[in-house]
Amino acid sequence: MKTRIIILVILLYSIQSWSQQITLESCYQLVKENYPLAKQKAILNNQNTLELDAIDTKKLPQLDFDAQAVYLSDVTQIPLPDTGVEPPNNDQYRATLSINQLIYNAGSINATSNVKLAQLKTQQQQLEVSLYQLKQRINQLYFSILLHDESIKLLEAKRKQLETQLQEVKSGIQYGTILPNSDKVILAELLKIKQQKTEVTNNKKLLLDTLSTLIGVSLNESTTFQKPEIATRLSPTLQRPELELFQLKMDEIESQQQLIQKDNMPKLFGFASGGVGNPGLNMLDNSFQPFYTVGVKLNWNVFDWHANKKKRESLLINKDIVKNETEIFELNTNIELNKYESEIAKISETLTLDSQIIKLRNEVLQTSESQLRNGVITASNYIVELTNLFEAENTFATHSIQLELAKANYNITQGH
Question: Can you identify the CATH homologous superfamily of domain 24-60+105-217+234-265+300-414?
């Protein structure tokens, strides 16, 4: 019993720990597994299995039942007198059961199956492309949440610093070294920070709800988002799933070409039929008689008015279209990669300047704190300098997140 309780506690702790921390890579994996579009893979597989089974039935004997009753306005007469042969009846009846068995079709059925398999691979890869394209949306949400977390941390740090300074200001007012009502200026600024924090928290909640819906996992304020350290891999080779999709489209066209070639080949069938009719095969016997026939037949469409040729030419045009789509995709992707490379370089340089600005703002704020304690400047002057430092730190945090977002988007665009 104790062992079960210990295992249960460990499991609960593990689940709680997992639910409180999430990474960018785990979001990629979760959206791939839980997004509703992912369910179509199993649906497509089931559909393809049914279609292949239906195609394979053409290799099995085909049974046909036929029954008819007709009245003929005229029948064959024997113009010889006294022969004793009566002409057939005007009303005639027949019921037959026929069996047809495909003997040879030049691999047309297998070629049809190959087309269906090629179509399945194309459809599945199209799903992969659609799921992959969600990664940039995940990036935007994930790094926006990180940015809001940084804003909340900076607002909290600013609040604590003001509260510390508020105590010193109140003490200075009491001893007459600081002007009266200076504490009210700081209190008003603390209320402003509370407003800003509420707004940022509400915006973050909206982002959490959106991301939670995408990845299919419940997220809340206690969830910790790990800040990724992304390394860009500059490479001229694209590894996007779209490129594989274009190749699968080419493979599908080639399988269709092979099917067209098989369709015009000769087909050999064996057949047998049996039944009962009035008359039977002996047209001069006016009674119900059983009968049967067996044989083979060859079917070959010798001339199709160039329909087969036109189909092949149409498929060649489709190939050209896919090649053109591939070239356009590679061109646009390389343009986008160049944009991200430029953005990464620009933000990296900006961050260096941000660090220098923060250092200078810190030095100015330290001087302002001393001046406020000695009554040289007002609380409003101090808050201006504190706000300048906060904005500089917030700008640095924003640029840091933007840099990681640009790196993540670069890697996604490249296919890594």
Answer: Outer membrane efflux proteins (OEP) (1.20.1600.10)
User: Which of 410, 384, 408, 392 is closest to 186 using CA atoms?
Assistant: 384
**Can you tell me which residue has the tokens 């079917």?**
299
Q: Domains of the chain: which residue ranges?
A: 24-60+105-217+234-265+300-414
Nearest to 333 by CA among 402, 251, 404, 409: 409
What are residue 69's phi and psi, to 5 degrees?
A: -135, 125
Which structure tokens are listed for 328? Answer: 């356009």
Separation between Cα atoms, residue 89 and residue 73, nearest integer Å: 10
The count of residues in the chain is 416
pLDDT tens digits, the chain, 416 residues: what are they? 444 544 444 444 444 444 468 999 999 999 999 999 989 999 999 999 999 999 999 999 999 999 999 998 888 777 666 666 678 888 889 999 999 999 998 889 999 999 999 999 999 999 999 999 999 999 999 999 999 999 999 999 999 999 988 888 888 888 777 788 888 988 999 999 999 999 999 999 999 999 999 999 999 988 999 988 877 776 667 889 999 999 999 999 999 999 998 888 899 999 999 999 988 888 878 889 999 999 999 888 887 788 888 989 999 999 999 999 999 999 999 999 999 999 999 999 999 999 999 999 999 999 998 888 888 888 889 999 999 999 999 999 999 999 999 999 999 999 87
- CA dist., res. 208 & res. 221, Å (int): 8
